[in-house]
Amino acid sequence: MGEAGVVGKRRSRAAVEAQVAQFEASGLMRAAFCRQRGLAVGALDK
User: Which pTM was predicted?
Assistant: First the structure.
């Protein structure tokens, strides 16, 4: 379980790869990118 009892949503490999590509293109720090999108920082590790 995630923070405050919220269970994270599993994303497909393609969705994770798309988010990683968006992150790389954004020029943002990892934490800032994830915060803006409501993602856990580990979401980009998959």
Answer: 0.71
